[in-house]
Amino acid sequence: MRLAVMQGRLLPPYDGHFQSFPLSRWREEFSLAQRAGIDAIEWIYDSVGEDGNPLNTDAGLAEMAQLSEKHSIAVVSVCADYFMEHPFLRVSPAELEVRIDKLLWLLERCKLAGIQRMVLPFVDNSRIENETDQDEVVRILSGALMAAEKAGIELHLETSLGPEQFSLLLARLPHPFLKVNYDSGNSASLGYDASEEIASYGERIGSVHIKDRIRGGGTVPLGSGNANIPVLLSNLSRTAYKGDFVMQIARDEPGMELDWIAKNRELVRSQLQEAGFGRGKNR
């Protein structure tokens, strides 16, 4: 089990974006994460910082690896927000072909980077709205999973589907490299019950984003919204979950990022320990 942070949270928002690849300052986050007592960074691949993302070049990959080793900060996951901005659904066949090619290319780059999982967000602009969308997701992922398995990279789906719908979709994609990214804040915002969700598909959860949101609203500091993190962790601890926990928490005042992450790290670690994580049982 590792406690990670979403890329960019240790720095002020880049160019006004709440979450994006920090184009000009990404190197700084390795030392900041080390100072904050964090184990890993979940990398971001999006269109905002696409051209300057080190995943694009062999020289960039080498620099990532060097910084990772120097500061003992793992990079084993990527959040592919690019596919929220360029969704697979409700697009022309030509657009879809380009985006699938992009996914296959990104899998190869992640393989070279030693990344072990990719979070694919099917939320907001890329949300799954109906059965037609579900059929399309199954078709797209059935092909992509062959490439993912070859690259040794799991695909983790983040969706806005309710527990029953999501469970039915997962049943159509039984591939061992297809897992769930559970986002505590998004589930709280949608009014879903964590106990019901974990009962429906807990054995397929491969990674967890820790954040808090108000029902029907935005991200707020941990403990001030509708996400009941202790209940989530208690239920999750009864499964065989051995994945990472990624802090995707609300931001504090600009310039206070390091102290804010360190403070939230202590809160989350205490909640994890209370739920039984880190005591050998879920390692």
TrEMBL record:
Database matches in Gene3D superfamilies: Divalent-metal-dependent TIM barrel enzymes
Key words of the record: Isomerase
GO MF: isomerase activity
The keyword Isomerase belongs to this UniProt entry's keyword annotation: yes
Enzyme class name: isomerase
Domain Xylose isomerase-like TIM barrel: 30-261
EC id: 5.-.-.-
Pfam families assigned: AP_endonuc_2 (PF01261)
Keyword Lipid metabolism: no
Protein name in the entry: Hexulose-6-phosphate isomerase
Species the sequence originates in: Silvibacterium bohemicum
Taxonomic lineage: Bacteria, Pseudomonadati, Acidobacteriota, Terriglobia, Terriglobales
